[in-house]
């Protein structure tokens, strides 16, 4: 069966359209169930439209649904043997979607990892598709208007994904915190300083990862 025939057969099934429409339904319970139902559709990985609609749930207003979408996409991107990954057309569609993610949308992903530890591995796989995202994550790290938990997650993924272009800003953050610590034994309860102390171990761990990656690539 050629590609066009497979596509026609997939979309001729009434259940296919029922599941795809459910992914964008107004009711969050229906959207959440649709993510499970999509996985039961034979051949959905070969269909770029199905993969794209699943990817849109990364930006769902409901955190739990975002988590379910992260898990589902992580399963598509993580595989043990050649041939188990996404087919080329579906992979290109997913990669194109992720390259359009902006700061606010990446924050939505970081909210998932901040709430669900089980999401971390899948988000690493998703962010590996976003080679440009390091610059945005670096900005998130230094955005004091954001919750410190989100900034911690940004640091974590800078290191895990290996965004080498964030190393300088992370190093500057570490040096700034260390400098504050040595200012005449300064003890402060200001939120800015308390938040940066909470960032410190994440920053150190991320920088070590990046320096290790640089040595391996060098």
In a few lines, what is going on in this structure?
With 218 residues, the protein is an all-alpha fold. It has two domains: 1-130, no CATH class; 131-218, no CATH class.
Mean pLDDT across residues: 89
- Percent of residues in beta strands? under 5%
Domain count, please report it. Answer: 2
From N to C, what is the helix and strand string?
HHHHHHHHHHHH
Radius of gyration: 20 Å
Give the biggest beta sheet.
none
Report, as a whole number of angstroms, the end-to-end distance.
46 Å
Q: How does the helix and strand content classify structurally?
A: mainly alpha
The residue fraction in helices comes out at 55-70%
Low-confidence spans: none
* Morphology call: elongated
Counting DSSP H or I runs of 4 or more residues, the number of helices is 12
Give an overview in words.
The protein is mainly alpha-helical and 218 residues long. It has 2 domains: 1-130, no CATH class; 131-218, no CATH class. The chain has helices at 3-12, 14-22, 28-39, 48-56, 63-77, 88-98, 103-115, 120-127, 133-141, 148-161, 167-181, 191-217. The longest helix is centred in the last third of the chain and has 27 residues, at 191-217. It is elongated. The model has no long low-confidence stretch (mean pLDDT 89).
């Amino acid at each position: 069966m050629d590609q066009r025939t497979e596509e026609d057969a997939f979309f001729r099934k009434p259940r296919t359209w029922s599941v795809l429409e459910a992914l964008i339904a107004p009711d969050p319970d229906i959207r959440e169930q649709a993510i499970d139902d999509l996985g039961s559709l034979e051949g959905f990985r070969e269909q770029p439209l199905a993969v794209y609609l699943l990817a849109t749930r990364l930006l769902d207003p409901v955190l739990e649904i975002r988590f379910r979408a992260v898990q589902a996409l992580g399963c598509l991107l993580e595989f043990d043997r050649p041939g188990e990954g996404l087919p080329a057309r579906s992979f290109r569609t997913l990669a194109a979607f992720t390259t359009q993610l902006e700061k606010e949308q990446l924050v939505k992903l970081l909210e998932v990892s901040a709430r669900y530890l089980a999401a971390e591995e899948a988000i690493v796989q998703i962010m590996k598709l976003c080679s440009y995202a390091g610059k945005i994550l670096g900005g998130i790290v230094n955005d004091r208007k954001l919750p410190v938990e989100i900034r911690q997650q940004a640091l974590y993924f800078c290191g895990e994904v290996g965004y080498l272009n964030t190393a300088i800003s992370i190093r500057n953050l570490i040096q700034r915190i260390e400098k504050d610590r040595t200012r005449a034994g300064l003890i402060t309860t200001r939120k800015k300083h308390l938040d940066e102390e909470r960032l410190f171990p994440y920053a150190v761990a991320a920088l070590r990862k990046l320096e290790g990656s640089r040595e391996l690539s060098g």
